[in-house]
Structure formats: C-alpha cells, structure tokens
Design brief:
The complex is a heterodimer. Chain A is an alpha+beta fold. Chain A has helices spanning 17-28, 33-53, 82-85, 95-99, 107-114, and strands at residues 2-8, 56-63, 67-74, 117-123, 127-135. Chain B has 15 helices and eleven strands. In chain B, strand 10, helix 11 and strand 11 (289-293) form a beta-alpha-beta unit. In chain B, helix 4 packs across helix 6 and helix 13 crosses helix 14 (389-397). The radius of gyration of chain B is 26 Å and the shape is elongated. The chains are: A alpha+beta, B alpha/beta. Chains A and B meet through helix 1 and helix 2 of A and helix 13 of B. Bound molecules: iron/sulfur cluster (2 copies). Chain B: InterPro entries: 4Fe-4S_dom (IPR007202), 4Fe4S_Fe-S-bd (IPR017896), 4Fe4S_Fe_S_CS (IPR017900), Cytosolic_Fe-S_CAF (IPR050340), Fe_hydrogenase (IPR009016), Fe_hydrogenase_lsu_C (IPR004108).
Chain lengths: 138, 436
C-alpha cells in the first residue's frame, strides 16, 4: 500500500504529522513494536530535517508484507559535505532551530542506525533524496 | 486471558445516545449503536474520561459496596492519599483515618506509606542504569494499559514495580498473619479515586494475584465519612506516612519524592499521548524518568474523587505543611516482613488496532479503508456513532458498520434514488405512451 504526504517547511510545531500517521498505519497492520520504533525514530528525524533544512518536501511510503520503503524528496539547498553530515554531532541547523531543541547533529546518524538500509543522493542547490528501507521480519 | 473485566460500565437506561463520550475516549473505544453507547472491552483502558463527560451519568465505575467488608472477620482499609484532600479544613490525616475505623474497619494502613517504600525501590532501579531511558512510571494503571495498546514499543521502558496499593495490601496481610490473624479472615479494602485501579485489582496483568480483596469508591465512602469526621475530637495515632508519600496523589509527586531531578511529570491523557509520541520518536532519551498520569491533577482528579482537583491540590499543600511539623505518628513493625515488589509476569503487547492477522489482508483492508475515508465528508460529526470519519471507515472495513451510517452518504444515496425514480416515472409503458 502507498501513502503520500506533502510536508510544509519551517513548521516546527506541526512537524511529525506524517511519521505519526505512518506509525498508526503500522500499528493497524500489526507490525512488531520493535520495527515500529525503528521506523518512528528514523522517519521522524528525516521529516524534521526536511522541515528545518529544506523548506518542506514530499514523502512517499510503500508498505508490502515484506518491506517498508520511505522516500523523502525535497528541493532544498542540498547537503554540501555528506560525509561530514553523517558524523555524530555535526549540524548546520539554524540558531532558531537549535534553540528549539532541533539540529543536535544526530539526525542522519540516527536514521542510519535505525534503518536497515539508507541511501542519500544530494546536490547543492537542487535538493536531497533520502531512501529508508526496513525489513518487516527481523 | 479470558474476558476482560472492566470497572467502567454503561447504565443502558440512562444513556440517551448523545455521542458526547465517543469524542473524548482516548482509545476510540466507544461507539453508539441503536441509540446507546457501547464500550469495546479490548480497547478500554478504564481512564474514566467517559464517566466525567457523560452529563446523563450513564457511565459509572463498578466498585464494592461498603457492606462487603462484613464478609470478613478482620476488616482493613487501605485509603489512597487522595482521600485526605476531600474534606474542608481537615489537615490532619489521623482524623480521616480514625473516622474510617469508626465506620467499621478494624485496621487502617495508608497507601501513602507504601508509596514511600516503593519510591526507595524505584530509585534503586533507576540508579541501576539497566533500563532504557526514559523510564516510565507504572503507577497509573490507565497509562500502563494505554502503552500496552497504543505504544507497545515502550513496554520495556515501564518500571516493573508493583503499585503502592498492592504493596500495602501485601504488607498488611503479612503483618496481620504474623500476629496470628487467619488469612481467610482478613479482608483488605482499597479506598479508591480511580476506576483503573479497580480493574487492575480484579484482573492484575503483571502479578499472579492481587492481595486487595475489594475496592470501595472514594465517592461512596465520602458521604459516610462526613458526619463521622465531625464527631472526632481526639484522633487516634494511626498515621505513618509523611509528605512524600501523601504527595504521590498529585502530579509530580512520585518524581519529587524520589528526588529525580531530570524528570517530566505529565497529566491528562491527551498530554500524556503527546509525550509518549515523543518518547516513541526517540526524542526524550535524555530524560531519566517520566511520570504519566491519566487524570488532570493526577489521582486528585480521579474519576471517583469528590472534590475538584484544583481545590484538592490547595488542600494537599496544607496537609503537607501540617505534616512537616506533625510528629504524632504511629510506629508498628508493619514492614519487617519483606515483600516481593516486582512484576512477576511480563506485560504483553495488545495489538487491538490490528485490522487482520494476515498482513496481506490487513494491507488490503487498509487500502479499502483509505478509499472509504476519502468518500466520507471528514468533518467528524459523530452522527454515525463513531468518533471520527476515519473510525467509521475502520468500522466499515471490519464489517461493524455501513457507509450509509454516515448521514451525508445516506442523503446522497437518497438523492440518487430520487433522481432514478424521477427518471423512471417519466418512462411510461408503451401501451399508454402519448407518443406511440
Ligand atoms: S474508560 Fe476511558 S478508555 Fe474506557 S471507554 Fe471510557 S473513556 Fe474510553
Ligand atoms: S491518574 Fe490516578 S486516578 Fe487517574 S487513572 Fe491514573 S492512577 Fe487512576
């Protein structure tokens, strides 16, 4: 099954709606709590990143009996140095975002740690595509 | 496990099917069918929200009548600390405890005292650092059930310690048996502001068996206590607790008692849900302890309490202040026998939201659900008897409702039918048709 979300940029307060809906869907499908947790953590991080850094974007989720695939696409500024961004603690978040408790530099490493597969393609000035994959059976 | 015994029940005669309750139930456990509300047992967490919002008083918590104590030769009351805050101008717990004895109890032991012992134990567990952060308190049974059905991935974060009322019931029985009273003669009655604690005394999930023999609602005993309290000049020395234990009744009380600085205290089920969402997203693992209480004001706002929670909170401050200087406390070897304070059974996940056991079928149902939802007006009016349009769509795919239950869809159908009838009525049989 497929789910599609349009995410607004800069909306810290409502950020997380898409991940909340996906979580509810996974519960309705009876997916194990442990996997729900992994998906929650990584998808929430990705969604927040999209809100803080990329002025929003779109999220497409596909769920089959074997896998959960999440594609996040934005046309934001892109990531200049991906290797650096993957390091724990590295952050380019604005002062405002940091003051609100976001942008601690844990986003990408956390997403990688909690997903079974993560690929990022990014181009400065064009945007970023994140693909997160999870196996339903551990 | 067999049938779920719930404390919260519906009085069918009083229910007018107004749909007030379906909107506020945090687990979408209520539907109105044929003009009456129905509670779906497997989803109800006994939070008592529906008891509060029903203006026809059709929802109630089933508790034991006071007479029930007469089934036992030796009657013990274990009152929740909320009881102390219900009476105007009474700050000395000894007065309330003495009045309980006058009502017919042979002995009174405060749950507040057990709360202090539980606090010490949970501190030890928290220092142990073996538990995933944040540790979530297990004190509110409505929250434990909420986690079980809505946030199962957080089950490992729950503090696996028994509740103060359970601990006090155990201490009481051990002690009384120790001084020669026969086990079968002892009846331990919890005086409760809480519906969920009635359910979890009758059907505990994490221990084999509750030591509580009956739960009496605070509301019921309040009416009987008021005249007795007035007659007490010289209270007996019955109190053992101090401010920390008594404070457990109020939001933040448990965290304050244990002195854990890095903690969050949240009350009101909607607020709790927001915090648990954050925990599930991994956003609060820098917090040590979270105390979640289903009722606004904590147990002071319990559905079986009499006084308004904010007024009770003011009285709680006065009681705590009184207690700081009150050295008139009872000293008995009640706690010499150690008891087991830990859960002996794991808390199981309850996947009540699951649409089908077969994942492929569940996906099909969910796709169908989305289609239905997209046809519905999405205004969540509740006229169909479900709390939201989405909940109606869920009920339809689970074959518990029809799309025509939606008044808007019904109207559309009627209009289509009317149009068809007009078209049909214009088609005259050829035998009488004017044109032929
Ligand atoms: S007690 Fe709470 S969960 Fe149960 S039906 Fe009432 S509102 Fe819903
Ligand atoms: S806050 Fe207290 S009274 Fe309310 S449901 Fe929880 S334990 Fe019961």
């Amino acid at each position: 099954m497929k789910l599609h979300f349009d995410v607004e940029g800069g909306e810290f307060i409502t950020a997380g709606i898409a991940s909340s809906k996906v979580k509810k869907t996974l519960k309705q499908l009876g997916i194990s709590p442990n996997i729900i947790r992994k998906v929650s953590i990584s998808m929430y991080e990705a969604e927040i990143n999209m809100v803080i850094h990329a002025n929003g974007g779109i999220i497409d989720v596909e769920i089959t009996p074997e896998n959960i695939d999440i594609q996040l696409v934005d046309d934001g500024p892109g990531i200049e140095n991906l290797d650096l961004a993957m390091q724990v603690g590295y952050s380019t978040a604005s002062k405002e975002a940091r003051e609100m408790g976001f942008g601690a530099g844990m986003g990408l490493p956390n997403m990688k740690r909690h997903s079974d597969d993560m690929t990022i393609t990014t181009e400065v000035g064009k945007g970023t595509k994140v693909h997160l994959a999870f196996k339903i059976h551990e | 496990m067999g049938e779920i015994l719930h404390s919260v029940k519906l009085d069918i005669d009083k229910c007018i099917g107004c749909t007030d309750c379906i909107k506020r139930c945090p687990t979408e456990a209520i539907r109105v069918r044929n003009g009456k509300a129905h509670i779906m047992d497997e989803r109800c967490i006994d939070c008592g929200m529906c008891i509060r919002v029903c203006r026809n008083h059709a929802k109630k918590a089933v508790t034991e009548p006071l007479d029930k104590i007469n089934d036992y030769a030796y009657k013990v009351a274990i009152p929740a600390p909320t009881l102390y805050t219900q009476f105007r101008n009474i700050v000395n717990p000894n007065i309330v405890l003495t009045a309980l004895k006058k009502l017919g109890f042979d002995e009174v032991f405060e749950v507040a005292k057990a709360a202090e012992i539980i606090t010490a134990e949970s501190k030890r567990l928290l220092d142990d650092k073996n538990m995933p952060k944040p540790v979530i308190s297990s004190a509110c049974p409505a929250i434990v059930r909420l986690i079980q059905i809505r946030f199962p991935s957080l089950i490992p974060n729950i503090l696996p310690i028994i509740s103060p009322k359970e601990a006090m019931a155990r201490y009481a029985k051990e002690y009384l048996m120790g001084i020669g009273i026969k086990k079968e003669d002892i009846g331990v009655f919890f005086i409760s502001p809480c519906a969920a604690k009635v359910t979890n005394s009758k059907q505990p999930q994490v221990i084999e068996e509750s030591y509580v023999d009956g739960v009496i609602s605070l509301k019921e005993i309040y009416l009987k206590l008021v005249p007795v309290i007035k007659t007490i000049d010289q209270p007996e020395r019955l109190q053992m607790s101090n401010s920390e234990g008594i404070g457990w009744a109020h939001t933040g009380g448990e965290g304050n008692a244990s002195g854990i600085e890095n903690h969050i205290a949240v009350d009101g089920i909607e607020n709790v849900i927001k915090i648990l969402e954050k925990v599930e997203n991994g956003k609060l693992d820098d917090v040590d302890f979270i105390e979640c209480l289903a009722c606004v004001g904590g147990c002071l706002g319990g559905p079986l309490a009499v006084e308004n929670a904010f007024v009770s909170s003011n009285r709680m401050d006065k009681i705590k202040k009184f207690n700081k200087n009150n050295l008139y406390k009872r000293d008995i070897p009640l706690f010499d026998h150690p008891i087991d304070m830990y859960w002996t059974k794991p808390l199981k996940t309850k996947q009540v939201l699951k649409l089908d056991d077969d994942m492929e079928k569940a996906i099909e149902k969910l796709e169908h659900l989305e289609e239905i939802y997209n046809q519905l007006p999405k205004i969540d009016c509740g006229s169909c008897g479900a709390p939201t349009c989405r909940a109606l769509a869920e009920d339809i795919v689970c074959e518990n409702a029809h799309i025509e239950d939606c008044v808007f869809m019904l109207r559309e159908k009627v209009r289509d039918m009317a149009e068809q009838m007009v078209t049909l009525s214009q088609k005259m049989p050829p035998s009488i048709s004017k044109d032929s």
